[in-house]
Structures are given as C-alpha cells and as structure tokens.
Specification:
The complex is a heterodimer of chains A (466) and B (722).
Chain A: H1 11-20, H2 35-38, E1 53-60, E2 70-72, H3 75-85, E3 95-99, E4 106-110, H4 114-121, E5 125-132, H5 140-144, H6 157-166, H7 177-185, E6 197-199, E7 215-216, H8 234-245, H9 251-275, H10 288-301, H11 303-306, E8 310-317, H12 326-351, E9 357-363, E10 382-388, E11 396-398, E12 421-422, H13 423-434, H14 441-444
Parallel strand pairs in A: 1-8, 1-9, 5-11, 5-12, 6-7, 6-8
Antiparallel strand pairs in A: 2-4, 3-4, 5-10, 9-10
Helix pairs in contact in A: 4-12, 8-9, 10-12
Chain B: E1 3-11, E2 14-22, H1 40-46, H2 64-70, E3 87-88, E4 94-100, E5 105-112, E6 118-123, E7 127-133, E8 140-146, H3 157-163, H4 178-187, E9 192-194, E10 197-199, H5 206-216, H6 222-231, H7 233-241, H8 249-257, H9 264-277, H10 281-291, H11 304-317, H12 322-331, H13 333-338, H14 358-368, H15 394-403, E11 407-408, H16 421-424, E12 434-435, E13 445-446, E14 452-453, H17 464-477, H18 481-493, H19 500-511, H20 521-529, H21 532-535, E15 547-548, H22 551-561, E16 565-566, H23 578-581, H24 605-608, H25 621-637, E17 650-651, H26 655-659, H27 664-676, H28 682-694, H29 701-714, H30 716-719, E18 720-721
Parallel strand pairs in B: 2-8
Antiparallel strand pairs in B: 1-2, 3-4, 4-7, 5-6, 5-8, 9-10, 11-12, 13-14, 15-18, 16-17
Helix pairs in contact in B: 5-6, 5-27, 6-7, 9-11, 10-11, 11-12, 12-17, 14-15, 18-19, 19-20, 22-25, 25-29, 27-28, 27-29, 28-29
Classes of the chains: A alpha/beta (466), B alpha+beta (722).
C-alpha cells in the first residue's frame, strides 16, 4: 500500500503564507483571518491610535443575593428590609456604611467587602442598582396584567444567564453582546491569531459572536499540546497538522478540528508573550478567582507583544445559588471577591491603566427578599458594581428601591424585584466605553433603543465621561 | 412526497389528472443498515444487495432506489410503479393500469366534483391491475397512492408484510417497536422468513459491533466486539438486561466498616472497579448517561456514601420504569441536599418564609417535561404567532414547591412522629427521605394541565406522599415527558441531532412498551439502540450526524478498551483533576445543568445549520489541549496510584498492539476498530501510517505504538463519533 508522508510545512508557516496571499479559499485554518471580510461593511472600526481598553466581566453564577450586598440604611428603609428579609436580614453592625451623593441616601455594604467599600469611597468604583433583564420598559401593572412581554424563562438560571450574556431576553440567543462587539472591533487588533475575547472560564455566550469565539486560558496561561514544538517530534506535529487540515464533511469534525488548530496556533504565542512581562509586585490571593484575575492582569500587561488594542475578559465565580446557607456562604464568597478584585485593581494601578480597564460584575438575578427557611430563591433585578475605566465612582447609578416591604410597587411576589434599569442600559454604557460606535450599537444591543436614545451625548447611565 | 408518474389530459368538459405517488414520509421509513440507500428487507427479498441505489438494473427507467421504495422487482423491467397511458372508451370511461408488486398495497383514489377522495385498496401480487373509471361531468382526479408507513414505526408497509408484521400496528412483532424488531431479526443471525422464503440471518461485522458497543457500553475490547458479532446486538442487549448491577457503595461501606478514611478518590476507585470489571456493560453506560440528566455533584455534596448510593440508585433503575426512577431521584437524600428540598418547610407568611422552589423548578425544566410544550417527536408545539408555548409558568413552580415540603432524613432512627425529628434526625445516606406531615403544606394545589391536588381538609385520608405521588404521576403522564427524556438519552448515547422521526419512535416506546406499560426503560433503550438512525451506515455520509464524544467518555474508553490494570488490582485512577483539565469528571458537574447543556450550539457553521452540539460547550482551547495531554500521560507513562505505593499505578495493556507493529497497517486498523469504530478515513489512516516512518530512530517499539495511539485518540475521526 502506498503511504502518504505528512505534509512538511508547519501550521504557523502555512498561516503566515495564507495571510499574505489574497484570501480566496474558505477552507481557512483560523476563521479569525476572515473577520475583516465578514464583518458588516458599515461597521465602524476605531480611529487609528495606540490607546488600549479592556473590559473584564466578573460573572457571579447562580444568582448573587445582592440585596444583602448593598443594603438600604435610611431608617425606614432599613426597617422594611429587616422585616421582609426576616431570618436573612443582616444586622446594622454587619454593614459598612457608605453614602450615595446622587440620592443623598445612606447605604450599607456587606461587611465582607471592605476593599470594595474603600474603592467606592476613593471614587474608583460605583454600584448599579436594581438592574436586570427587561424586554422593554415595564411596570408592575404591566407584569400583573400581562401587558408587556417579559424575559423568556424568567427566574430560570440557564435562561437568565443566557439573557445577561446576550442582552436579548425576548429570544434565546447563543450570541453574546461582547461577542458581537468583538466581531466589529476585532480588526482593531493586529493579532489575528488570538481572539480579542479571552475567557478564564471556558466557553460562554457573552463572548461568542457571529464570528468570534472566546480564547480560553487557565490560571497557568495557555495549555499547549505536549511535544508539538519539540524537535524530535516533527512526525507528531506533521501528523497532527495533517489530521486537522484534512477536509471533513462532518460539521462536527470541522468544528472540532478548528478548535484544536486555533488552540495550537495561539498557545505558544500567548505563553511566550506573558512569560515576558514584568512580574507584578501585587500579591494575588491564592484562590481560584484571585489566580484567574492574576492571569487576566498578566494578559493585559502583555498587550504590547500580543498586539492587542481592545480586549474583553470573562471570569465566572460559581456557587452563588444559595437556596440554603445563604448568610454563611455569601459571607465567605464575597470576601473572596473582595480580595481578588482589590488585588486585580492594584495590578492595574501598577500598569498605570486605571482609566483603560473596566471590571464589571453580572449575575443571573438577585434572589427573593423572603426566605425559604434556609436561603433564598430565584428572583429578578439586583445590584452590580463597576470598577475603573475612569468612571465617576463613589455613587450608585440606577434607582435603588426606596421600599423593600413586601408588596411594594416593584414586588412581583415573594420579594422578586422588578428591575428599574435594564441590562441593555448597563451594557450600553460599557459598549460605548470600549468603543462600539453609535452606528453599531443597534447591532450589538438590538433592544437598547427601547430604553435609551442612541446618539445621545451621554451614555445610558452617565457613568463614563465621554 | 415523491411523485412517480403523472399523466394529464384535457378532454372536452372532463378534466382528468391521474398520477401515482408514495405517501408522505417515505424517506424516513427505512431500515438500511448497510447505508446503501436501498431498503434492506427489499434487498433480501429480491436478492438485490449488490445493486447500487442510483443504478437501474432492469433498464425500466426507474432507479433501483425508487424500486426499493415502491417494493418492485429491480430485475424485472415490467415491475415498476408507474401508470400506463390511459385508454378511453367512447362512453367517456377510461382505464387505469399499473403494475402491482408482491406484498405491496395500493390505494386508487378518485375525486369527482367537490366530493372528498374516495379510496379503494388493491393488493399487489406481481401482476398488472386494470380498472375502469366511469365518466362523470366536471373535473375529475384519479391517483394511485402507496401508503408507505401507515403506523409510522419507521418500517414500510410492504416490508412489514414481507416480514409477517402488521403494517397498521407499530408493535405488531413483539415487545419492541417494529423497526427495532426488524433490525434485531436482520442482525441476530437466526433464520427468519421474508415472504414465503426462509432466509439465513446475518450477524453484525466487527465494525458494526464496535459502533454498537460505542453506544451501548463505556468501552469494549476485541473479545467483546467479537462476542457481538457472534450473538447479535439484540441478544447482547437481552443478556445485558439480566446482568446484575456492579454497585459502587459496597466498597465504600466496607471502608467505613473497617474504620478507614473515605474520600472522593476512594469512591471514584470503587466506581472504576465496576466500570473495568463488572459484566453489566450496558447498565453502567445507561447509569452514567442518567447521572448527566439527574445531576448531583460532589462539588457540593461531601458525602461519599450518599453519592455512591445515589449512583447505585441510578444503576438499579437503569432497566426499570421511569416512574420509579423519578421517585427514587426525588426522595434520595443526596438529591434533597443538592437541590435543597431536604428540610424544605411549608410557608409561614407571618415571617415571610415560603417553600424552596429549587427542586420544583428543576424537576420540570431538566428532569421531565422541559420548558415548552412538545409534540411526540420532540418538536415544539407553536401558537398562532408561531411561538413556542411555555410548559409552565412561575406560578406553577411556586405551587409545586409546596408539594415538596416536609421531607427530611430517612432511615430507622428518623421518627416522623417527633416534630423535632425533622431538624435533628441523624443523616442516613442510604435511606429515602421521610416526610413530617406537620411540615408539609396541606392546602389545595393546582398543578399543570388542570390537575388539582385536594386539600387535606377536604380529603382527610390524604397524606404528604399522596401529593408527591400525584405530582410525579402528573409529570410521568405529561405528553412532554416521553419526547423530552427520549431526546436526552439519544443525545447521550447516539447523536446530538436525532431526527424528529427517531425521537418519535423512542417516545412511542416510552409511551407503550408493546404491553401497554408506560416508562419502561428497557423498551426505550432498545428503541434507541435498535433504530435505523443508530445502526445505518448511511449516517457516515451525513454532515449532521453523530456527536462529539465527551472527553471523559474518551478517557474511559481508552482505559477500558486496553484493560488498564495495576499490580495490586486496585483502580486508583488519577483523574481527580479532569474536571479542570477536560471539563468533566464522574459525578462532578459544575451545576445541575450538567457539564454542558443539551441545546448548546457553538456559533458558526453548527449554529447556522440549525444544529446543536452539546459537548462543544466544554471544548475550548484549554480543554482540547489538556484532554490530549491527559491521554498522552496515560498512554506514554501510565497513570494513577495514590496509596503511596507504586504497585497501584495503572498501565494500559498494549501487548497485542506491539505484536502488530511489524504490520503497521494492521496496527492502525486494529486501533481504528477498537477506538474509532472503523470510522477513521483512509486519509487519516495514511497520515498516521506515514508518521510511523518519520519517528525518531531511537524510538522503542513501545514509543511507536504510543505515538500511534495518541494520534488516533487525537483524530477528528475518533473524537467525533458517527
């Protein structure tokens, strides 16, 4: 039998040739090469320059009980809070006092978040109150009388996570708004081998666009294929390349091959870039979240060698679905967030990128104000925080409900609070900041214009000076 | 619909259209194991297995494929399904003629004026029909129709008659659906009758057996593959149904009895021992699939006995009835803790306390009916606006949350007459949760579909378990449950994108096992594994077919196929970090949504094609590489061992492969058969063979075999199973 010898070129050389040649074939080995062609013709890329910006999404998966993260402290408000939350209510001494200059009201931050409180007071951090998924502006009457379309699968984890990722709660979409933003902005980066969207928590909808998929890292950086780069393993490299370059009829095989070849192409390059950075003096906590934020900070530090002008990062913290043990569990988990985020911020300060990196939190939903005896159940609007990027911090954006007694004018039932700020407004603010033009905003956030006049001078929340 | 012939005539006032066609759905009524697009029963009846679909052996103008669909003789140029030219009489009547093949039935249908179609049946017997139609004023239509699959069991009517089945009864041939029964007959090696002739039964070849075992087991060596080629698939399944379960908990209980520390890795080793040594190959496979639907996770449950007992519960229910399964799942203390209905109390509005909604939500969304109303074939029922219809709303969840109140510890020491026992009974990991009536909500409950549970005041005989049983009955009998559960199981075992017809056939088996029993898992499993969509080679050419093998399943297959073993006979398999590296580990899902979701569709060509690919949710730049490196470690160096003693390290047994190294093609073919079910393309084989020549001179034989194994394990042809 006649044997074929494996092709002798290396994958990387071949890609180099491809990108120089006119791109005529669709059998590309990295679809990232193709982006300039497939992006919408009218998409507005950034003006040339060498500025840098990065968004970091910290997703608290499972539904953070955020009505215990940010608590009203005005006398009447606190009393209603305590009555409604009953055995889940925090005491005054468990709260760190802050003031919101916008409303003039006093609030308390969970005592596990002292560093977050400091960042709030130093003006680097802001809260966004009672934000959640909405299809259109909606009142409690609309909900009660079924007059407004509501997010599909309200109160369900998988659906609400999907909606927070896609910002299109009127459909079940597996395309995320940061993915679509990256579809448009990716050509800003000179590097076409590594996605501008990097995930420390594997695949996710948020960062998956129509063309872009997130590039996945571990706390140790990229995982490379054993032996692939070793001199003695040329046979292996050749065979691996041939197996991946083969034309497959099966769509599943095509996609499997593509994920593997993209990983091989990107891995060595990425690791050599982060190996070259100056180590941080900041010590990151030795927690899962701390180490993942350290790798994000390292990737940001390596933006030069990686040839990145815009980047989006995603990291998920699991285990916030506190049907039971909410008080104890949340105490420890918020402390982990507090330490990790604070270390991340010191590293960003070391890099001098305080105005160029924005970290924001997101979560499936807040939880019922009322207790199930052990914890709280799935609800709707909740609170998030945003750090950095030159925002006007030390204040609370959106509207924190003034009355948390049951059957208040936002209570859908059991203390499920109707959001007063939509995820579209929240993300519209961030999308503008990272550089999505007004022309492209409707593509990235198709429902945004239901809540905000695109083209306005200021963003939907007015958080960032433009 | 395939139109076979049409003759059109306009004649004075009388307009006649006559045509002949196969009824709708013909393309799916097919048993075609060899994947040549010719129906297998027809091939046997006419001795036509050597023909090609696109050929026309008898030159009658009708392709062999069409003849197999219409049941006509491909070697007889007079035998084809087509109307002859019409002939007319002076009185205006006309004559229809067509050839009626053996065992085929035809409906002559006429439509005159505005009347509805009238039909008369003609039974073919290898002869020509001739029938006269009287004249009529006004437009007339006449057509000849072959009802292709009257009972929608996936087997065409004429083939059912050839096999002695009833074409109007999907369960006419036994305790499995007719398609499964036909596939069993065709592949079990026993003689059977087609028409009036007795034919020798076939047995699966090695490739077909390997493919079957890739679906029906967690791994199989050459011996097991050969066994299937000797007894056939249906018999193998029947044997497996009788295998005793290889349970995990006894080994854990023994450790506890011996006062030894017991951790996750001990439970893992106990499970691995069963996977590697127990004879219940099919049961182990089904239980693992069930563990990815009825999810609990040792990420949050730190009770080795409870986790082991839960898995054993899945093993015990694998061949039972779904109704028992869902009850055992519901009442299991491990599930109670995982989804927090353990110690769930009835409402106390005075202190704003309401029942926990967690289990109520997930039992519907993930375990039984899903989010939307479904047809029996798993497609969504749409409303007038074309939108899917939610199967329940949040009010239904809060109501059902009240059903699952009052549950707490079970076991002999839990005294439900003692109110404090609800809070303070000792944990019993092995016993179903008990119910404290005083903590149970006794008000009336309006469940889905108008089913109401009466208040205990109105029905003094009622107790809490009645609420739970009635609720589980409601879910069991909900029309969504058969297609919802069937699809999930098909996705775990066979393909990510089953056709609606396939789902419909498995649903039918769920609804009725042939003896009127609903929820019989044996019937469901047979319907899944003995379906044309699981068995036909035609899927090899289908760009949508198959599934990405879960990384952990690839890992198990490697370990099991090569009978990994240690000196001391333990299975201390070092995979405690695979949930990080591969994104998967036994019983260690990150959430109740499993490692990946059944509707995950990676953006790009898969999503654009309207397909899903659940396992791609955990295929990233990180996991893809780490998975291969994990395999590499095991293949190249051995693996495992954590008892601080070298003798518990494991090695794959590859001596057979070393013997084949002198014949590299044999080596690659063997790995193709064992791992890739014969699905390595020639191009992939050539690539791997070519690499052997390029290996360094200093490579030992072991190095060479290891390298070849790595490449097979890496190849898309292995990683995607079709």
């Amino acid at each position: 039998m006649k044997r074929h010898t494996p092709k002798q070129y290396s994958r990387r050389q071949f890609i180099g040739q491809m990108s120089c040649a006119a791109v005529g074939s669709t059998a590309l080995y990295s679809t990232l090469l193709n982006l300039a062609l497939t992006s919408r013709a009218s998409a507005q890329t950034l003006p040339s320059g060498n500025d840098y910006k990065a968004l970091v999404c910290l997703f608290l998966a499972g539904g953070n009980d955020s009505y215990n993260m940010l608590v009203p402290r005005e006398n009447n408000e606190f009393a209603s809070y305590q009555t409604t939350r009953a055995d889940l209510a925090l005491d005054a001494e468990d709260l760190l006092d802050i003031n919101d200059p916008r409303s003039g009201r006093n609030f308390g931050i969970h005592s596990s978040l002292p560093r977050v409180r400091d960042l709030y007071n130093s003006g680097d951090l802001a809260f966004v109150a009672n934000v959640g998924t909405l299809v259109q502006p909606t009142t409690l009457d609309d909900v009660r009388n079924e007059r407004a379309p509501l997010p599909l699968g309200l109160y369900s984890h998988s659906d609400q996570q999907m909606h927070w990722h896609s910002s299109t709660p009127d459909q079940r979409s597996s395309v995320g708004w940061l993915g679509k933003a990256a579809d448009i902005l990716h050509s800003t980066n000179e590097n076409d081998r590594i996605s501008m969207n990097i995930s420390l928590s594997g695949s996710n909808i948020l960062q998956s666009g129509n063309n872009i998929i997130p590039y996945s890292l571990t706390t140790r950086g990229a995982i490379t294929l054993d032996n692939y780069d070793q001199e003695w393993a040329q046979f292996f490299r050749g065979a691996v390349d041939s197996l991946l370059d083969q034309e497959y009829q099966s769509l599943l095989k095509q996609n499997y091959a593509k994920v593997n070849s993209d990983a091989i192409d990107a891995g060595a390059e990425f690791n050599s870039a982060i190996d070259g950075i100056t180590p941080f003096t900041t010590e990151f906590p030795d927690t899962n979240l701390g180490q993942r934020l350290r790798m994000i900070a390292s990737s940001i530090a390596a933006r030069g060698p990686l040839a990145m002008r815009r980047q989006n990062f995603f990291v998920e913290s699991d285990g916030w679905d506190h049907h039971d043990e909410v008080l104890n569990s949340q105490q420890g988990m918020l402390a982990e967030v507090d330490e990790a985020v604070s270390a991340f911020w010191s590293a960003i300060e070391e890099l001098g990128l305080q105005n160029d990196v924005t970290l924001f939190t997101a979560s499936d939903f807040a939880r019922t104000l009322t207790s199930n005896g052990q914890g709280s159940d799935h609800a709707w609007g909740g609170h998030q925080f945003v750090l950095g990027g030159g925002l006007s911090g030390g204040r609370i954006y959106g509207e924190y409900p003034e009355d948390l007694s049951l059957d208040n004018n936002l209570d859908v039932g059991r203390g499920r609070i109707l959001p007063t700020t939509s995820v579209d407004e929240y993300f519209g603010e961030l999308a503008r900041w990272i550089g999505v033009s007004d022309t492209d905003l409707p593509d990235v956030l198709p429902n945004l214009d239901r809540f905000y006049t695109i083209g306005s001078e200021t963003g939907p929340l007015g958080m960032f000076a433009q | 619909m395939s139109e076979n012939a049409s003759n059109t005539l306009f004649r004075n006032q009388l307009t006649l259209f006559s045509f002949a066609f196969l009824a709708l759905g013909s393309a799916n009524a097919d048993v075609d194991i060899d994947g040549n697009n010719l129906r297998d029963v027809w091939e046997i009846y006419y001795g036509a297995s050597e023909l090609e679909a696109l050929g026309d052996e008898d030159n009658d103008g009708i392709s062999n494929q069409r003849e197999s669909q219409t049941g006509t003789d491909p070697f007889d140029s007079n035998s084809y399904f087509k109307l002859s030219p019409l002939s007319y009489s002076s009185d205006g009547s006309f004559t229809l003629r067509w050839f009626g093949a053996d065992y085929q039935h035809y409906l002559l249908q006429t439509l005159q004026g505005s009347e509805s179609w009238s039909s008369s049946e003609f039974i073919g017997a290898n002869s020509t029909f001739e029938t006269q139609i009287e004249p009529n004023v006004g437009p007339s239509l006449a057509r000849v129709v072959i009802p292709d699959d009257s009972d929608s069991d996936g087997l065409s009517d004429y083939e059912e008659r050839l096999l002695g089945f009833d074409p109007n009864d999907a369960y006419s041939a036994g305790e499995v659906g007719d398609m499964a029964q036909a596939i069993a007959m065709l592949t079990n090696g026993d003689p059977f009758t087609i028409g009036n002739a007795s034919v020798a039964g076939q047995l699966p070849n090695q490739v077909h057996a390997s493919r079957f075992l890739a679906q029906a087991s967690l791994g199989a060596d050459l011996e097991e593959i050969n066994r299937v080629t000797e007894i056939g698939m249906s018999t193998w399944i029947d044997e497996q149904f009788d295998e005793a379960p290889g349970l995990v908990e006894p080994e854990i209980d023994q450790r506890i009895a011996d006062a030894l520390n017991t951790y996750q890795h001990h439970r893992s080793a106990a499970w691995w021992r069963q996977v590697m040594t127990s004879g219940d190959l099919l049961r182990q496979r089904i239980a693992l699939a069930l563990s990815e639907i009825y999810v609990v996770s040792d990420q949050v449950i730190f009770d080795e006995e409870g986790m082991a007992n839960y898995y054993d519960m899945l093993l015990n229910n694998a061949f039972g009835n779904w109704r028992n399964l869902i009850k055992d799942v519901t009442l299991h203390p491990t599930m109670g803790r995982y989804l927090s209905h353990f110690q769930n109390r009835k409402a106390d509005p005075n202190i704003n306390r309401y029942p926990d909604e967690n289990y109520a939500r997930e039992i519907m969304q993930l375990f039984s009916i899903g989010l939307f109303e479904l047809n029996q074939d798993g497609t969504q029922i749409l409303d007038d606006l074309g939108q899917p219809i939610p199967a329940y709303d949040n009010g239904d969840i809060t109501t059902m949350a009240r059903v699952f109140t009052g549950l707490s510890s079970g076991g002999p020491e839990a005294d439900t007459d003692e109110p404090w026992g609800f809070f303070f009974s000792p944990n019993d990991s092995d016993a179903p949760m008990k119910i404290w009536e005083g903590e149970h909500d006794t008000d009336e409950k309006l469940l889905l579909n108008g089913i109401t549970l009466p208040s205990f005041e109105d029905d003094p005989e009622r107790t809490a378990i009645d609420d739970i049983d009635d609720t589980l009955d409601m879910l069991f009998n909900h029309p969504n449950t058969p297609p919802f559960v069937s699809r999930l199981l098909i996705q775990r075992l066979v393909t990510s994108n089953p056709s609606p017809e396939y789902i419909g056939r498995v649903s039918a088996a769920f609804i009725n096992n042939g003896n009127g029993t609903r929820g019989d898992m044996k019937a469901v499993i047979k319907a899944i594994l003995l379906d044309n969509e699981a068995r036909s080679d035609a899927v090899l050419a289908d760009s949508r077919a198959g599934r990405l093998r879960e990384p952990y399943l690839r890992w198990i297959r490697l370990v099991k196929t090569f009978n990994a073993s240690s000196e001391d006979g333990t299975y201390n398999i070092a995979d405690w970090n695979t949930d990080q590296s591969m994104g998967q580990k036994w019983m260690r899902s990150p959430s109740v949504f499993n490692f990946f979701k059944p509707d995950h569709a990676p953006s790009g060509s898969i999503s654009n094609a309207g397909m899903v690919a659940p396992e791609f949710e955990i295929l990233t730049a990180t996991t893809s590489m780490a998975t291969q490196n994990h395999f590499n470690g095991a293949i190249s160096w051995g693996f495992g061992g954590f008892e601080d003693n070298a003798s518990d390290g494991l090695h794959l047994n590859t001596d057979d492969l070393l013997d084949l190294l002198d014949e590299p093609e044999e080596l690659v073919n063997r790995l193709d058969l064992l791992l890739a079910c014969g699905q390595l393309s020639q191009e992939s084989k050539d690539t791997i063979l070519g690499s052997i020549d390029e290996m360094p001179n200093w490579f030992s034989d072991e190095n060479r075999v290891s390298a070849v194994m790595r490449l097979v394990m890496f190849s898309p042809d292995f990683s995607i199973y079709q």
